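lol ok so funny story. i was supposed to be doing the assay writeup but got distracted and ended up predicting the structure for this chain instead. priorities right. anyway since i did it might as well share w the group, maybe its usefull for someone
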Amino acid sequence: MLKTSDEDAIRHMVEKWMAASIAGDLPTVLNLMADDALFMVPGKKPFGKAEFAKASEGMKAVKFEGRHEIQEIKIFGDWAYLRNYIDITMTPPGGAPSQRSGYTLTIVRKNGDGSWVLTRDANLMMP
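and the output, tada:
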C-alpha cells in the first residue's frame, strides 16, 4: 500500500510527540495538540490541554522511555484517526520504574498550514 504525504506527516507527528515526551520537551508536545484537545484515560473524567500541561509539569523529574507501533491510520480529508500501541517505562528520581502499555485511539486534524495536531485521544494503557 502506497503511503500518502498526509500519512507520512501523521507518522512524523507521532514520532515527534514520542521523542519530545521522552526528552521532557513539554512545549513541543503542547504544540502538537489542538487547543480544544480532549484526553480520555481509564478511571478519570475526560480532560483538556490545560490539565494535560499541568499534569506534565508535575512529572518533569520523571525519566521516560518508550516505544510505539502505529497499527492503523485512516485519513478522511482534513481528519484522520490512528490506532497505536504504546509501551512506556516511567522512573521517578530515586524510585522504582513502572511500566504501562496498551493501545490508543487518536483523532487528528490537519491545520491550514498542512500540519497535523491531536484533537482527541483515548488512551487505554494499563500497568
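Residues 5-123 form a domain with the Nuclear Transport Factor 2; Chain: A, fold (CATH 3.10.450.50). The beta strands are 33-40, 47-48, 63-76, 79-91, 98-110, 116-123.
back to the writeup now i swear
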